[in-house]
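INTERNAL TRANSFER SHEET
From: sequence group
To: structure group
Subject: SDR family NAD(P)-dependent oxidoreductase

Please process the attached sequence and return the structure record in the designated field. Keep the field labels unchanged so the import script can parse them.
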Amino acid sequence: MMALDQLPDNAQVLVQGAARGLGRALAEQLLRESRVATLIATSRDADSPGLAELARTGGKRVLPLALDITGEAGIRQAMGRVAEQVPALDLVIVCAGLLHDRNIGMHPEKRLADITPERLAAGFAVNAFGPILLLKHAQLLLNHGRRAVFASLSARVGSIADNHLGGWYTYRAAKAAQNQFTRTAAIEMRRRNRESIVVGLHPGTTDTDLSRPFQRNVPDHKLFTPAFAATRLLEVINNLTPEDSGGLFAWDGERIPY
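Return from structure group:
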């Protein structure tokens, strides 16, 4: 992994969704960076095995924290606890994503007839509302005058300009909404901290639970391990400047049109 030389010494970092998948890989790599003094690792369950393993690896540098991205009251409470532990945040990475859920019969819609209010509500709650509500309650910790990055995992399929295949109505629309939230929030955050950077990140097709049912036609060289995707995303984050704020960037640094 490249050195994260844009992070300050004694950096304070938060990774939402750090218990498994890509969030876990990002957290593990951040713990290898000596500049990271504190890693706040969140999951819906603070006692999850993934967070416990991170705590064993990172010791006192890791603060496990329960955070449910789908409820503002829980987000507010969690960020209140963060504010009690650290004076500011230098990097926040939001890994929330929902594409399918067997428990509620949710899957990517191929036809208009497949759309239901319940699937729309679930998809927007996680993919669009969750990240922006987390930024709402993290903003004071990011408005400190130094470089501060808020990066949320988005997806290329959320690009309206890049939509040539159709389908996947809820996921596409929720990610498009997330991208609009990112762009709008970046403008406001820049007024308060000119060194702030608010971006969306497209990790590529990564071998996680989110993509697993849809990997059959993905060429081997385009199916990334979480460790590879995490390395490339951290490289992208490290190379961002305030002029990039509001953008959507792929794992290889390509700027994706909205």
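Handover comment: DSSP finds six helices and seven strands in the chain. The first strand starts at residue 11 and ends at 16.
Transfer complete.
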